[in-house]
């Protein structure tokens, strides 16, 4: 934003609207804010954008401006009261960033432990993430099991790891494998098992529009992948009996 005078600001519109105009804002001697009468404001997107500049004094994030343009292309947008939708593009982008950005401070702390060699299981661990195909949530529960081989982790690290890894855009099958691979790399155990159950909003809210369908995926490593041993059967029996 460039100061044009003591009480006037020139703001270039970041949106590629048909007007391709420049908004000139000024304040009269009564303190009232105006748009220069020689510059038409016919684009509703730009009217809202100009109002945001006036309200905050800052040029909005260009990504938020693009979100505004996207939302305003939907027929239902203009029928939504302006006071409810004024901050919606910013909230929308903030939500996407929150749901897709991993915590850089997260550390999966492990400990040497030679006296624990029996199966450790945890669940259900609630999780949610965004579908990579439709950018709507799928959410459910995750179960984890592992058989240590000289190394364990604090119990709180497992739900934290699920939350950390679920940030982003995923298909459930790949997320399940990602969690199993992460735990195997961190713990180097005799085996790791991960099972995820989730309801996908892309099936509940669109497409087939059937709510309540649950998808189960699994990833088995080490002793859990050996069908001739009892580890997998014991783990699955614990989940099914929950």
Give the helix/strand layout.
Elements: E1 2-5, E2 8-12, E3 22-27, E4 33-35, H1 44-56, H2 62-72, H3 82-85, H4 88-100, E5 110-112, E6 120-131, E7 137-147, E8 151-153, H5 157-166, E9 169-170, H6 172-187, E10 191-200, H7 201-204, E11 214-222, H8 231-240
Parallel strand pairs: 6-9
Antiparallel strand pairs: 1-2, 2-3, 3-4, 5-8, 6-7, 7-10, 10-11
Helix pairs in contact: 2-4
Name the helicity range: 25-40%
| Radius of gyration over C-alpha positions, nearest whole angstrom | 26 Å
Span between termini: 59 Å
C-alpha geometry:
elongated
What are the low-pLDDT stretches, counting only 5+ consecutive residues below 50? Answer: 1-28, 32-42
Could you give a short account of the major beta sheet?
5 strands, mixed
Average of the residue pLDDT scores: 82
Q: Overview of this structure, please?
A:
- The structure is a single chain.
- Helices cover 33% and strands 28% of the residues.
- The protein is built from eight helices and eleven strands.
- The strands form three sheets. The protein has a five-stranded mixed beta sheet. Strands 1-2-3-4 form a four-stranded antiparallel beta sheet, with helices on one face.
- It is elongated.
Name the descriptors.
GTP Cyclohydrolase I, domain 2, five-stranded mixed sheet, four-stranded antiparallel sheet, 28% strand
Give the structure's gist in a few sentences.
With 242 residues, the chain is an alpha+beta fold. The protein has helices at 44-56, 62-72, 82-85, 88-100, 157-166, 172-187, 201-204, 231-240; strands at 2-5, 8-12, 22-27, 33-35, 110-112, 120-131, 137-147, 151-153, 169-170, 191-200, 214-222.
């Amino acid at each position: 934003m460039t100061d044009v005078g003591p009480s006037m600001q020139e703001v270039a519109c970041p949106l590629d609207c048909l007007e391709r105009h420049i908004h000139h804002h000024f304040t009269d001697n009564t303190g009232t804010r105006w748009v220069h009468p020689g510059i038409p404001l016919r684009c509703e997107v730009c009217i809202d954008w100009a109002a945001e500049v006036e309200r905050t004094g800052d040029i909005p994030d260009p990504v938020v401006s693009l979100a505004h343009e996207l939302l305003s292309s939907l027929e239902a947008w203009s029928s939504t009261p302006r006071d409810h939708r004024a901050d919606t593009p910013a909230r929308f982008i903030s939500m996407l960033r929150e749901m897709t950005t991993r915590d850089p401070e997260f550390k999966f702390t492990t400990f040497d432990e030679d006296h624990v060699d029996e199966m450790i299981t945890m669940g259900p661990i609630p999780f949610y993430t965004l579908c990579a195909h439709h950018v709507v949530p799928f959410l459910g529960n995750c179960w984890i099991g592992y058989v240590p081989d000289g190394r364990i982790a604090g119990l709180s690290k497992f739900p934290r790891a699920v939350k950390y890894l679920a940030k982003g855009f995923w298909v459930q099958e790949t997320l399940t494998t990602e969690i199993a691979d992460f735990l195997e790399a961190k713990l180097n155990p005799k085996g790791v098992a991960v099972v995820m159950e989730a309801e996908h909003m892309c099936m509940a809210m669109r497409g087939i529009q059937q709510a309540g369908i649950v998808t189960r995926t699994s990833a088995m490593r080490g002793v859990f992948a050996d069908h001739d041993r009892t580890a997998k059967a014991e783990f699955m029996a614990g989940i099914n009996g929950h």
